[in-house]
Amino acid sequence: EIDYIPSWKNCATEEEVVEHLSGHRERDRIMATTTSGIHRDRFVVSSQGQSFDQSGSTGQLRLASLVLRSAQMAFYEQMAGKKPVILVDDVLLELDHTRRERFLANLNPYSQAFFTFLPEEHYSASLQELKIDPHDPKNSLGFAWQEIVTERLYPHVKIVDIKMHTLVLRADHPSWAQITMMQQKRIIGELQRRYPSLEITTIQVIT
């Protein structure tokens, strides 16, 4: 179920909108932003009476947002008679290869697309095509990384390399690097339990 929640709930006419904006002008000036308007409208997705952003996993939320963007593309083409230009950033990399390929295969037609991704990532290719052995501990670590660091850290901390006995990670912000180091003991313990042959004893986080 999808509910549309406008920020101008009680404004039915242009005059009422003007009156509402005038009444909140001082608040907007203090906050240095417009606190109401179509840019503040929300779409709330719920399932069985519960908000999906509370019950869905990180991957499910990402996939739901991509589905809604696809619907927006179709609506734009229907209304404007033109195919959209799209930017697909690294949110797509948070999906596994199967879901990623399925999404790309069903993506609505577009005029032009820009994709951003990390050098070591692949948008749509099977493990066999990439010649990746899922039984190799280094590759297996990459597949299980989300489980190891938890869904909270996973979008912000990626594996860069394994040098000697050190796992080198890259965080997208110093705060996430700090949180990762605070969990270093737990992460190393999990790595040693799952992949003893890698002999990882320390973690290095770069930003």
Structure description:
The chain is α/β, with parallel strands linked by helices and 207 residues long. Helix content is 45%, strand content 18%. The protein is built from 9 helices and 8 strands. The chain has helices at residues 14-23, 25-31, 52-55, 58-80, 97-105, 127-130, 137-153, 174-182, 184-194; strands at 2-5, 42-47, 50-51, 85-88, 112-115, 157-163, 166-171, 202-206. Strands 1-2-3 form a 3-stranded antiparallel β-sheet. The longest helix has 23 residues, at 58-80. The model is unreliable at 126-132 (pLDDT under 50).
Give a summary of the structure in a few sentences:
This protein has helices spanning 14-23, 25-31, 52-55, 58-80, 97-105, 127-130, 137-153, 174-182, 184-194, and strands spanning 2-5, 42-47, 50-51, 85-88, 112-115, 157-163, 166-171, 202-206. It is α/β, with parallel strands linked by helices and 207 residues long.
Low-confidence stretches: 126-132
* Secondary-structure element string: EHHEEHHEHEHHEEHHE
Side-by-side strand order of the widest sheet: 1-2-3
Specify the structural class.
alpha/beta
Shape descriptor: elongated
- End-to-end distance: 39 Å
Number of strands: 8
Averaged pLDDT: 80
- Which range does the strand content fall in? 15-25%
The rounded Rg comes to: 22 Å
Helix content: 40-55%
Count the helices. How many?
9
User: Major beta sheet, specifics?
Assistant: 3 strands, antiparallel
